[in-house]
């Protein structure tokens, strides 16, 4: 029988998936100039006027409760939409972009009966964000310095 803390502890990533500590690099970059953080993800998502089916995608088509408004779920069901928002922020000059995980924790996900998806949503969102950062840097823009 597992304890409550066992059920809340996400699995650890494989050792090759962890990034090295970038604290020194970040501090050095911040000392050189002002940096900019992306804006409100939820506000931009609202502009798309998504409906229930857009939020559900194929995987959650038969989910027993409404999921419209669960913006974090879009990292799984509409990853290209989330990627386009990240790209727009980067193209606009953001040095840092956050993950699409404003409510991707068990307490908020309980509103949709999706508590078990917390780790998956956070991982998918972080990987999606990282893909956009890498693609942006591959295009020759290295202004972030981290």
Keywords:
single chain, mainly alpha, globular, disordered N terminus
How much strand content do the residues show?
under 5%
| DSSP summary: helix tally | 8
The assigned structural class equals mainly alpha
The largest sheet is: none
Q: Could you give the count of β-strands? A: 0
Radius of gyration: 17 Å
The unreliable regions are 1-10
| Global shape | globular
What is the arithmetic mean of pLDDT?
85
Order of helices and strands: HHHHHHHH
Quaternary organisation of the protein chains: single chain
Helix content: 40-55%
How many structurally independent domains? 1
In whole angstroms, the N-to-C terminal distance is: 44 Å
Summary of the model, kept short:
Helices cover about 45% and strands about 0% of the residues. It contains 8 helices and no strands.
Give a description of the structure.
This protein is mainly alpha-helical and 146 residues long. It has one domain (34-138). The protein has helices at 4-8, 23-30, 41-46, 52-56, 74-77, 79-91, 106-109, 118-138. Helix 6 (79-91) packs across helix 8 (118-138). The chain is globular, with a radius of gyration of 17 Å. Residues 1-10 have low confidence and may be disordered.
């Amino acid at each position: 029988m597992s304890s409550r803390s066992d059920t809340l502890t996400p699995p650890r990533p494989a050792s090759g998936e962890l990034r090295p500590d970038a604290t020194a690099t970040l501090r050095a970059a911040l000392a050189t100039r002002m940096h900019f953080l992306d804006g409100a993800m939820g506000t931009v998502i609202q502009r798309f006027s998504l409906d229930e089916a857009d939020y559900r995608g194929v995987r959650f088509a038969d989910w027993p409760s409404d999921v419209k408004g669960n913006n974090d779920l879009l990292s799984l069901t509409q990853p290209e939409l989330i990627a386009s928002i990240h790209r727009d922020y980067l193209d606009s000059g953001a040095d840092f972009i956050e993950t699409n995980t404003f409510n991707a924790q068990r307490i908020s996900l309980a509103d949709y009966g999706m508590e078990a998806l917390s780790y998956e949503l956070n991982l998918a969102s972080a990987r999606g964000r990282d893909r956009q950062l890498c693609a942006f840097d591959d295009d020759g823009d290295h202004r972030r310095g981290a």
